[in-house]
């Protein structure tokens, strides 16, 4: 989507998309952007940034952002259907994800006239003002597991402060995001403000290394995230925000509400078929309640097997994995896991067609087990037991990731005592990870760099400028 029009890529190359439900062809016409296409998008974004978009008042930016949010809500079912067809996200979950888009755009539409600067009284004859300028032309690269939401987390704060944007969704779920191009035009965004390109890692790499892009925000694997940061440094040192993977811990104490813990470790863990960076896939349960918890969780996982179905069926809760590559990857982890831990339930393919996996529980993985150390990104949870609070904290923090974490206890003091000691950007007490537009989301350690959502997410799209005035002349 360039200058508010859909255009074919100059590359002439296309990608095909197959349904993860039955491997049927969804489309063979996903355009693959090449350097010429990326260049055209950057030029359009730069012209808009310096031109018409810079003349929009804050109130006018708010107006088009709010209109965009309304249009997204009006077209939620079509957008959700695109996601269900492309990556197999159950239609009800996909519709919920689309709801995040309008919520985030409405939240940031409220910020357009509230990012005030600072003023410092005259000292040593100098009067100082700090103002926040929009960074300029920004780019975003998204993953496939919540494509519309990743678009909103990146584009909404950027346009709210006056930046312009080039967005590339994942080649595994490009269709929903492509709908936003038409809606942005209808909402009143001038040509060049929001540009959407499609393609794979090559197009992403062109964005990360482009000399006239001032900032890039990436959601995806640690491997690709490091490549983006490397390319950003080697090109023009563009600013970088990375939202990467996780292998998040969850601690369950004897005084936890058992039903609440079971719901969160079954239904909420299996949400999106476990394809969530925030999934607490390393569960630690106190030894006093372990046997009962594991027995009941096993029963829940087996019940959820009956919710597996077509992504387009509103009754489906568990859909297929996004594609054959992910399916093979998770199946490999299942086989490896059988030699690294005790298989409690699941452990194989569900059915004979489509990328469906049985909800799986592994118990007591070895400390160096791959299923315990690596992000699997599927409906696969590992469980270990612990005796003391200190041991639980040590186990929880023993990972290269630091995205999310959960604590299940009825003691507020214990919850806060532990929360302070967990190396994670998000700590959830008696609940699962919930994303909210007004609080920062991001990870410690190799789970990322920077934050999205909240004021912190906004500040990544401005540069602070200190103006000093000599009051003696
Ligand atoms: O991610 P990739 P994939 C993890 C999860 C998953 C694994 C692989 O473990 O199994 O990553 O998933 C673009 N320069 N997460 O293959 O490869 C690519 O086109 C610039 C966790 O989907 O990271 C796509 O748009 N861009 C994560 C995006 O990066 C590049 C969600 C993501 O692709 C690039 C997704 C490059 N060198 C996967 N290589 C989360 N945090 O939720 C690829 N891309």
From TrEMBL:
It catalyses: an aldehyde + NAD(+) + H2O = a carboxylate + NADH + 2 H(+). One of its GO terms (molecular function) is aldehyde dehydrogenase (NAD+) activity. The active site is at 243. InterPro entries: Ald_DH/histidinol_DH (IPR016161), Ald_DH_C (IPR016163), Ald_DH_CS_CYS (IPR016160), Ald_DH_CS_GLU (IPR029510), Ald_DH_N (IPR016162), Aldehyde_DH_dom (IPR015590). The keyword Cell membrane does not apply. It comes from the Eukaryota. Keywords: Oxidoreductase. Residues 6-467 form the Aldehyde dehydrogenase domain. Its EC number is 1.2.1.3. Belongs to the aldehyde dehydrogenase family. This is aldehyde dehydrogenase (NAD(+)). It comes from Lojkania enalia.
